[in-house]
Amino acid sequence: MGREGFSTLRVLMCALLVAVHFAHVNPVKALTIFDKEFADVESLLHAKQYANADTKALLLLEQALQQQHMPADMFSSLGELLQNASRFEVSKAIFNAALERYTTEGELEKMASTLLQLATSERHLSNYDTALTYVRRAMSIAHIERNDLLKAKLNLELGIIRQQQNQIEVALEPLKQALDFFRENRMSNEMSLSLLRIGDIYSLLNQTSLAHTYYQDAFDSIEGSTDPRLLGTIKTRIGALLLKTGASAQATVAIKEGLELLQVTNDVGAIAEAKMLMGRALVENGETAKGRELLMEAMRFASSSGQAKLMIDGRLALAQAYMKEQDFERALAEARSGTIDARKSRDLRGQLSFLSLQLSAFVSLGEFKKALDIQSVIQQLREVLLDSENKSAIEGLQAEIELIRQSRTLEKLEESKQLALAQAEREKLQTTLVWSVSLAVMLLTFLVWSRYKQRRQTIILRREVRQQTLDLHKKNEELQAAYKTLEEVSLRDPLTGLYNRHCLESQLPGEIRRSQFSARQSPTTDKAKQDLLCLLIDIDHFKRVNDDYGHIAGDKVLSSFAQVLKNVFRQTDLIIRWGGEEFLVVCRQSNREELPELAERCREMVASTPFDIGLDKPIKITCSIGFSLLSPDKKDNSDVAWERTFAVIDYALYASKLSGRNGWVGVIETLDTDFKNRTPIDEKFNFTGSRIATSFNNIASIQWPDTLDNKQ
């Protein structure tokens, strides 16, 4: 957005104004406004005003976050709209907000679907490691929920990621698993997409006949369908394959048909890819200027949307166009830039393609020393590629590079001989023949050396592939073991249905950072909803319940106690079973002054609630509470803040127990200036002073434990 003139400060100020405006909007009106703003974003995307659409979407996200009742599905809808328009960076922010809301609500399947969307955005931005992390997290949820459809969709995405990482053999297995599921359940569109992606892999391996078979199967499975997006994509892929085999006229027809189908959709990314292929086809047919114009248009779109792979493909096509025109200097410049881009994206196959173009350009320009240097780099990259690619893919790539190198070298040799004969008519014949023979010997030596290296590389390759296969089996076994471990981990306590410590560990650091960020952003404004409140609640004399009535009765008391806590606190608060009869509550976006009221409401409701344990009469129980602001001493580090806060509330809880139970003690806030009447809690935690609140007679009546070892 900086390129469009929107500074970060301006966006934040706009977000603050919108937040103030919507602070008192009722839920129905807020949803209506959201729908209108959503329509505005959609209109901006249709008008290709992408920078304005990004800004509008981020402001809309900030508005929605201020509305606690705003459904998470609205976030997902906005994220999908932006993702379909290839605005992947902004869509990531939207999907992350949706993921957080789904996690809070415990919607596991929707969490997994959102993780899949995040993986897709990261994959388009060439952030493959991050995308794989999201896929693995979603796959663990799919296994827990036994959702086979979700597993198939994740396998499809996993195969696409592995393909774009050039891990061809690894990519085929999840794609075929996805295809089997979609075929068995007669899901024609998804089956067609799986066939299309498998065809892409065989095209990458230069197995054009097999690739064409899969593309045709993909087309036949949805022929007559009303989905122009998928039909257009398949047509363009067939055109790309025809272009690869040299049938440029047929390729142009197929790509044109695919582009016409895609033009009626909103998939600007697929349209840009089709225009790039059309540009290549036009160059091959001799319409060079028009073809280059389409290539440049596709590259501009790739740059604006952050799609590194599309940018690399476009630059490669442009460099090949310059080579075809024998404009070797421009071809060399594009190939060098493309090599840098491919290196940044860790695209070894792309680097090899650009280096091959550099090799051909240097040979054509007669700079053989540089050509030999490039060949050395190519050889080194081939060795690196052995660690990440299967045998057939590497051999196909080597054959392609070797063919290009040999054909260009032989063409240069023939041109050099003709040049020598022409020059001999003007200069001395003997000197020209000496140079021609020397050049021929050098090129012949170069060819012989390359063939020798290739044979040795093939022997090494066989050994490496066998070792890689063994390593792959071992890693698969480790991955299956990890999945089993993930299945055993749950976000909720099975007895009470409350969150457990795993949930707290994942949620709390982000909540602390968000609270601290809000406080820093608006230090002088109303802080009514910026605080994090923390309460530690313990059931009094719970051991007597187990001893007198049995552990089954104790479990019933714990379940009923959890329900009381749900009635006391808000749905947005984190209610956690900390262990045994202890419960922890974290209240988000709250006011510290509410702490005594919350504690008293909890104490009173527990004391007044009859607990049914299966006897003729229910029993009565009470609870003790310790509380504090999170964090009380304004530590910046989230881990330190939590450790300090828990120590404070634990100390306050046991002070409440020592003071007679059925009450509460806590710290509302700490003071920045020295306070004369410091309490034991100030001495213990080195506070300059603090505001203490208690349900007992007064602060002087609190019995403070000397150390935490004196717990009762």
Automatic annotation (TrEMBL):
Please indicate if the UniProt record lists Transmembrane as a keyword: yes
Q: What class of enzyme is it?
A: transferase
Molecular function terms, GO-annotated? diguanylate cyclase activity
The answer to whether keyword Hydrolase applies is no
Q: What cofactor requirement does the entry state?
A: Mg(2+)
Q: Which UniProt keywords apply?
A: Membrane, Transmembrane, Transmembrane helix
Query: Where would you find the membrane-spanning parts of this chain?
Result: 433-452
- Identify the residues that the record assigns to the GGDEF domain, covering every copy: 530-669
Q: Which reaction does it catalyse?
A: 2 GTP = 3',3'-c-di-GMP + 2 diphosphate
Q: What is this protein called?
A: diguanylate cyclase
Q: Which organism is it from?
A: Alteromonas mediterranea (strain DSM 17117 / CIP 110805 / LMG 28347 / Deep ecotype)
